[in-house]
């Protein structure tokens, strides 16, 4: 896929918007920042007491905000995203703190390079997630940590049942696995997997499950950022894995 064909380029922050992403304006801007990221950062803090100089990869880094949060904690961070325009916005705001590169999973080193690999709300937009997980696992050093945030299947099911116009053509109401998510004028193919599916694949990569969390919509969040759909089930499913210390590089 060329940059001209990349639908995420259309959604990149434009102009001054690239510099105004620290204060969310709506719930779909604030959900990662206020619901998912605190859980991930708390887990990483429980595993890595001193992140100074620890090598981290944020795959599907988007506007770079989370990569920059890791950098401020002391991690040495590499951010990678497939959209050249989104990476340009990330570089404009955080380029002095984080090294950003344009690329897909094929640009990630296939040998142990990072102590921490994170991927927030990215894998549900990748049709074939098995090679992606295997590649991220290969890039992780023995003893390292992989943390994923993806859609909670129950949340997606709720919104399909509610008839939300942004969730189009899903193959099932109760157990959706694929469909289309509408971001304004842009349609993004979306793939929903269960924790069991991720855990099974992770085990084959010698990654041990370490965390499964579903951060709920809090009353405080909903008061500030009203959600125009069901909030009974959390939006995010957060999964963390630890790579065995005994694993050697597979070339």
Task: Describe the secondary structure blueprint for this structure.
Layout: H1 7-10, H2 27-47, E1 55-59, H3 65-73, E2 76-81, H4 84-94, E3 99-102, E4 114-120, H5 129-138, E5 140-151, H6 153-161, E6 167-168, E7 178-183, E8 186-191, H7 195-204, E9 207-213, H8 219-224, E10 236-243
Parallel strand pairs: 1-2, 1-4, 2-3, 4-5
Antiparallel strand pairs: 5-10, 6-7, 7-8, 9-10
In short:
The chain is an alpha/beta fold and 251 residues long. The protein contains 8 helices and 10 strands.
Give the key terms.
single chain, 251 residues, alpha/beta, 10 strands, 32% helix, 25% strand
What can you see in these coordinates?
By secondary structure, this protein is α/β, with parallel strands linked by helices. Helix content is 32%, strand content 25%. The protein has 8 helices and 10 strands. The strands form 2 sheets. A 7-stranded mixed beta sheet has the order 3-2-1-4-5-10-9, with helices on both faces. Strands 6-7-8 form a 3-stranded antiparallel beta sheet. Helix 4 links the parallel strand 2 and strand 3. The chain is globular. The protein starts with 6 loop residues before the first helix and ends in an 8-residue tail after the last strand.
